[in-house]
Amino acid sequence: MLKYIVSRILVMVPILLGIVLAIFFLLNVLPGDPVSLMMKDKIKPDVIDNLRERMRLNDPWYVRFAVYVANALKGDLGYSYRYHREVKDLIMGAFPNTVKLAFAALAISWGIGIPTGIIAAVRKGKLSDSVLMTFSLAGVSMPIFWIGLLMQYIFAYKLGALPTSGFSTLKHLILPAFVLGWSSSGGIARMVRANMLEVMKHDYIRTARSKGLGETRVVFGHALRNSMLPVVTMMASQVSWLLSGAVVTESIFAIPGLGRISVDAITNRDMPLLQGTVIFTTVLIMLSNLIADIAYGFLDPRIRYQ
Amino acid sequence: MQNQEEALHADTALLRIAAMLRTDKKAAFGAVVIAIFILVALLANAVSPYDPYKIDLANRLGPMSAKHLAGTDSFGRDVLSRIFYGARISLVIGLLPSIIAILIGTALGLVSGYYGGFIDFIIMRLADIVLAFPSLLLALVIMYSLGVSLLNLFIALAVINWGVTARTVRAQTLSLREKEFVEAARACGVSDLAIMFRHILPNCIPTLLVILTLDIPEAILSEATLSFLGVGAEPPTASWGLMVSENKQFLFSQPWVAIAPGIAVLLLVISFNFLGDGLRDALDPFMSE
Predict the structure, then answer these.
(1) How far is A211 from chain B (nearest CA, A)?
(2) Domain holding A284: CATH number?
(3) Half-sphere exposure of B6 (CA within 13 A, CB side)
(4) A52 touches A35 (CB < 8 A)
(5) Do A197 and A120 sit in the same domain of this protein?
(6) What confidence score (pLDDT) does residue A160 get?
(7) What residues contact B71, with CB distance under 8 A and at least 6 apart?
(8) Interface with A, mutate which of B143, B155, B228 (most A CBs under 10 A)
(9) Any residues with CB less than 8 A from the CB of B121 and at least 6 apart, and which?
(10) CA A219 to the chain's CA centroid
(11) Min distance B198 CA to chain A CA atoms (Å)
(12) Which residues of B touch A269 (CB under 8 A)?
């Protein structure tokens, strides 16, 4: 098992380095010199030279990349152009809000997705299966920003039951979490249904039925347990989905989280902040992939020996 | 002989798709709706009741009426005409970058699977990197780097989405290159390039078709989302995502104007998903053959 975990981590390191290099290249090398972009020709050349020296822009890009990675490993992601604060502090301020939103959304998406998938699988081919699956596909097909606005209109404006935006109380969390959770519940439902149907074909299900077990025991005792395995791996891709979805959800509901600051960073041309948040988010996603891989290795011993 | 075998494959694939469209109501619904959207996009200047860019400040945020079937937006522009024109952007952004991404992925996957070794290693690590990146974030970074415009969004989507195709085509190439018909072609002295494109590629086409129908709705949603966030189409372009964003501040007074373009997105995306599901069901047993 230890060997498996170590090998997973070793695979991850070069990919991560490649991602950081890609982001660095796109944000630092491709757009050209940030100082001349910022200053145009309004400033004296010696001031520009001074600034270029301070920002290490006179070094070749690979030196700057090495310095960036070395600093990032020490937790230093640079300074935000806009807020004049450390990027690290801005990220740490926003991160808890995104975590709250993501966990609440995760609970909702599993709460809706898993039962939907089970019911659809058990009633395969019936009308309820078709309706539930259409409902799930609609969840996947709706733009998150659109459901968000629709929910704001219905629950905040028409019914006046919930606040439109902000993030101060638990009540503020309900609408955004539901919007984000619903849109990802469709994927879960489709996955659970497909796995259940796959598992239901196996001999041991027939054996369980022929033993005279009731359908409920067969479904919950035998089929469900075995069909949940691949769903564990789906958790990892869900983290990626939730963090991407959070970008939009946080913008609509004015939640000061990671997604919101990355969109703001683009609007403000705040490169260090954008770079920091994107790298931080990607690391989070890769870590959750790693955890899912390890969990999968624990749950299914066959994986470890491949 | 092998050519005959491949032709047969392509025929059976078409037959299965036709049979699927007759029995699978959802997929048929999807196909019809997509066809309608394509027609509307092609004939947008003929079917639109108004010029989608004509500002009429006297008629701002007008209700649905006989004159303006879907009302007018905050600039007094006709919403229905803008939705019709928006179909152009959504379809072009949905189709073209996805096709380019699939072409890139196919070429890389073929080379990777056929030659193996170092090239394979490099290509697959690149694919790992693209796949590990959440695509929305990568799109944001690319848009920052290249600047906000539809063309750059187009480039971003094409560059992001080749990973899945490359992996799938590589896997199929790995198994196909050991088959007798490939060996026979090689024995006859057919060049590597011809083997890859004439003998291996046709067998991958059903899979590629399924990947394409699943990539298109993703791309449409990405364009809508990025344009909504202000990192895609620029005003006054009639893009569905941008239309929602431009009118969201009037959500509580004139909700329809912000909601309507979203319905168009939902309808088009769910239609592609219905069709994609149907295609997968129809071609899946075929693909494992």
Answers:
(1) 32
(2) 1.10.3720.10
(3) 16
(4) yes
(5) yes
(6) 78
(7) B61, B62, B63, B64, B65, B79, B254, B256, B257, B260
(8) B228
(9) none
(10) 31
(11) 33
(12) 144
| Contact yes or no for B228 and A145 at CB 8 A | yes
> Which domain, by its residues, includes A242?
95-304
Helix (H, G, I), strand (E, B) or coil at B223: helix
Q: Where is the domain boundary, A88, A114, A142?
A: A88
Q: B23, B126, B137, B257: which to substitute to probe chain A, counting the most A Cβ within 10 Å?
A: B137
Cα distances from A105 to residues A18, B134, B189, in angstroms, run 30, 18, 58
pLDDT digits (tens, 9 = 90+) for A148-195: 999 999 988 888 778 777 777 778 888 999 999 988 888 888 888 888
Same domain, A22 and A132: no
Contact A143, B225 (CB under 8 A): yes
Burial category of B87 from C-beta neighbours within 10 Å (exposed 0-12, middle 13-18, buried 19 and up): buried
Instruction: Tell whether B225 is within 8 A of chain A (Cβ).
Output: yes
The answer to whether A299 and A235 have CB atoms below 8 angstroms apart is no
Question: B239 by DSSP, 3-state: which?
Answer: coil
Q: C-alpha angle with apex A94: A90 to A97, nearest 5 degrees? A: 170
CA distance A19 to chain B (A): 6
Q: Which are the contacts of A112, defined by CB distance < 8 A and separation ≥ 6?
A: A181, A182, A185, A188, A189
**Residue B222: pLDDT band by 50, 70, 90 thresholds?**
very high
Q: Which residue reads 């229905």 in tokens?
A: B80
Instruction: Show which of A57, A88, A119 is a domain's final residue.
Output: A88
The dotted CATH code for B14-47+79-287 is: 1.10.3720.10
Q: Does B122 touch chain A (CB under 8 A)?
A: no
Question: A210 with B190: CB under 8 angstroms?
Answer: no
Q: Is B20 on the interface with A (CB under 8 A)?
A: no
Number of C-alpha atoms within 13 angstroms, CB side, residue B266?
20
Band (A290; pLDDT cuts 50, 70, 90): confident
Within chain A, what is the greatest distance between any pair of CA atoms? 88
Same domain, A199 and A137: yes
What phi and psi, each to the nearest 5 degrees, are found at residue B79?
Answer: -70, -40
